[in-house]
Amino acid sequence: MMTRRTFLCGLTLGVLSAPHAAGAQQAGKVYRIGTLVTSQIDLRGEIFLTFLERLQELGYRESRNLVFEHRGADGRPERLQELAQELIAANVDVIVAWSTPAVAAAKRVTTITPIIMASSGDAVATGLVDTLSRPGGNVTGVSTHQAELATKWLQLIVELLPRAKRILVLWDSTNPPDVVARPGLETAAAQMKTRLEFVEARDAADYELALRAAAERRVEGVIVLPSGRAYTHRIRLAEAALKSRLPTVHGFREFVDAGGLLSYAPSLRLLARQAANYVDRILKGAKPANLPVEQPTRFELIFNLKTAKALGLTIPQSLLVRADEVIQ
User: Fold this and answer.
1) pLDDT tens digit sequence for 118-166
2) Which domain covers residue 167, as residue numbers?
3) Is residue 18 part of a domain?
4) Of 35, 39, 56, 28, which Cα lies nearest the Cα of 5?
5) Is 284 left (phi over 0), alpha (psi -120 to 50) or beta?
6) To which H or E segment does residue 69 belong?
7) Virtual CA dihedral for 269, 102, 41, 254, nearest 10 degrees?
């Protein structure tokens, strides 16, 4: 089993300082990178360490030519803008933002400082960039197609539970990718003759109540649309789902590490490396408006067999053979 990754959703914000010489780092320059996550940054977590490792490969070293400013919103997305303003005051050179709300908060605060989407959903549909090829403004980075991913999550839970007719979808209407994903999910469910029940959930109590009520209504499975709030409460969410004997499908592997049943998601390690590449290009003088937005090239299917056993489920062999990792 891989080391648990606790670094999910993050936001960074900063102000561009002196102009950078194109194509090369400035001798003697110490660059300041701001980071802000919806929860709290784990500086020893695999995602941040992967990001840092790639920066080191590109010639950056902490305390030599690189300084970080970290901020965490403690699971309260409404604080992101305030924390972004703090990073502006700290005069960071570039913003690295994990999550759509983080990017959006940074964008509201500055039109000058480069903002890198280390992870975001549907950047065009949510208004973060103009187009993927020509993002415009001061935002670029990596973006997933959340609507397509949500349909894949539905397909997976139907393949896992072929007789299931009622699926609960836990979502957050304040999270833009959730809003973008819902119409596609509803269309796919109609084609599969599966009924979806959308329930708003934003804190641990919401998740516990929704899952308990779903079990009483004989709902057969759960799709948890990923958000910063869901990530913050992932352990409580997994415990509540297991108590209600409901299998869950997730958009981040950290939920499966916490006890969820399965996830299908981009490789967060590769996203971290892509984000570091953007940082390097920006610090060497590239303009965000001219750097095309990239999309993930690798997705991972992960199962938690311990959870499956606790639920009394047998994972079909057709799914297991496609798994990138199986947690025993």
Assistant:
1) 989 899 999 999 999 999 999 999 999 888 899 999 999 999 999 888 9
2) 146-265+300-327
3) no
4) 39
5) alpha
6) strand 66-72
7) -50
